[in-house]
Design a protein that fits this description.
about 450 residues, Rossmann fold, seven-stranded mixed sheet, 12 helices, about 30% helix, DNA_methylase_N6_adenine_CS, RsmC/RlmG, methyltransferase activity, transferase
């Protein structure tokens, strides 16, 4: 595969090389290959050296020079895309995850972070008319978006739905092997033209242009029903990037069943005292916290998640079931310095009506629920689980208990013993284990 979309020796390639030479990163920095590919495309389009598909115009009729005044960058995990693009346009950044937003802010200080995709956004130049002729006003500056291809099609669909009214050209970037036809299908719902760029290294672009006046956009949030014996049917809401969508993952289902069983146990030695307060670290779509509130009759419930989509989903799930809880946007696994920065960001979001007040997670709780992730993207990692366990220990009241569910091969019991306190197995099936950890009463 070629090393660039741009023709060797071309003025556009020299401009790209000059730009990258000003960047501070080593050649093998994570995310640099995709940032380089985006620089190719923007510089090439602006110079007329590339057509809309990212193919060189050498030897063909010259493509009209086009380029954005504003670029919206979505879910840039490393911040390098945003940093490079700030050399070429005004950049707005949106990250669903707080930890990634923190990285982008550090790498691209000239970019402006936004807490929600629909607002505030610049208006697109104009949609394609229903007869297929573009109605774009050439005198108005173009707005482009770069969306890092998510694992879930629903996440991409919701992002396209949010961006379509504001964006003339929407570029999905990702590893070639991960760019399925579903990306083309979702872009075609909103844009009259969809192009696939040549591959560069292991990456490529799929480009939507000519926004449709009558798009066929997917509506969010999605609604579903989860029905388990402990609670009966509960309505569940899920935005596109929310883990597990409107379903209950098997681990949470086992944890809830274990909680209901120990609450009803006839033996005083095994019965869990009904908690007055519950903290759910990693609340996802909010079903587990909502269900636990129903099962226990707790007076106070707080859910925490690092994902904006999860926070919005959990709030809506609780409201749909008339359960009163606080849902907080925060990185519950972060070290204290990063957690303080995230709390400040969450406070800013709260002022804009997009997150709960981070102060609502203060204090201790009688019961903490943990269903820690062990993947970040495609990588397996257990540091997040350890961070969540430390946070659980910090917020656990004397005499309180932590219920943790995890994939059995991870063998977290010893770690729970060392971080929280005496631990015992409550349940185990072919895939998951539930451990109860206690903080002895004084």
């Amino acid at each position: 595969m070629p090393a660039s979309l741009l023709a060797p020796g071309s003025p556009a390639l020299r401009s790209r090389d000059d730009l990258l030479a000003r960047m501070p990163w080593p050649a093998d920095a994570p995310g640099l290959a995709q940032a380089r590919l985006l620089a190719d495309y923007v510089i090439g389009r602006r110079a007329g050296a590339l057509d809309v598909s990212g193919r060189t115009t050498e030897g063909t009729f010259a493509a009209p020079a086009q380029g954005p005044e504003t670029i919206i960058v979505v879910d840039d995990a490393h911040g390098l895309q945003a940093r490079v693009l700030t050399e070429l346009a005004s950049v707005l950044t949106y990250n669903d995850r707080l930890d990634e937003a923190r990285i982008v802010a550090a790498e691209a200080p000239l970019a402006e972070a936004v807490a929600d995709l629909p607002t505030p956004m610049p208006a697109a130049s104009g949609p394609e008319t229903d007869d297929g002729d573009p109605s774009t006003d050439a005198s108005r500056p173009e707005v482009w978006a770069v969306v890092n291809a998510p694992k879930a099609t629903n996440a991409l669909a919701e992002t396209i739905t949010a961006l379509h009214p504001h964006v003339d050209t929407l570029i999905v970037i990702g590893r070639s092997e991960a760019m399925s036809r579903a990306v083309n299908t979702e872009l075609a719902r909103a844009y009259g033209r969809v192009d696939v760029s040549p591959g560069v290294g292991k990456n490529r672009l799929i480009i939507g242009s000519r926004p449709l006046a009558s798009p066929s956009l997917t509506r969010f949030p999605r609604r579903g029903v989860i029905d388990v014996p402990a609670t009966g049917p509960l309505t569940v809401s899920a935005h596109g990037a929310c883990f597990s969508g409107t379903k209950a993952d098997d681990g949470s289902t086992l944890l809830l069943a274990s909680l209901a069983e120990v609450l009803a146990a006839p033996s005083a030695a095994t019965t869990l005292a009904r908690p007055a307060s519950i903290l759910d670290l990693g609340s996802g779509n909010g079903w587990l916290l909502t269900a636990a509130m129903r099962v226990t009759g707790a007076e106070r419930g707080v859910g925490v998640d690092i994902s904006r989509a999860a926070v919005a989903s959990a709030k809506e799930t609780a409201e749909a079931n008339s359960v009163t809880v606080d849902i907080v946007l925060a990185d519950a696994a972060a070290d204290p310095v990063d957690a303080a920065a995230d709390a400040a960001n969450a406070a800013a979001d709260a002022a804009n009506g997009t997150a709960a007040d981070p102060a609502s997670v203060a204090g201790t709780f009688d019961l903490v629920l943990l269903n820690p992730p062990f993947h970040h993207g495609t990588a397996i990692e257990t540091d997040t689980a350890a961070g969540l366990m430390r946070t659980a220990a910090t917020h656990l009241a004397p005499g309180g208990r932590v219920l943790t569910v995890f994939n059995s091969h991870l063998r977290y019991r010893d770690r729970l013993e060392s971080i929280i306190g005496p631990s015992e197995q409550l349940a185990r099936n072919a895939k998951f284990t539930v451990i109860e950890s206690r903080r002895p009463a004084p």
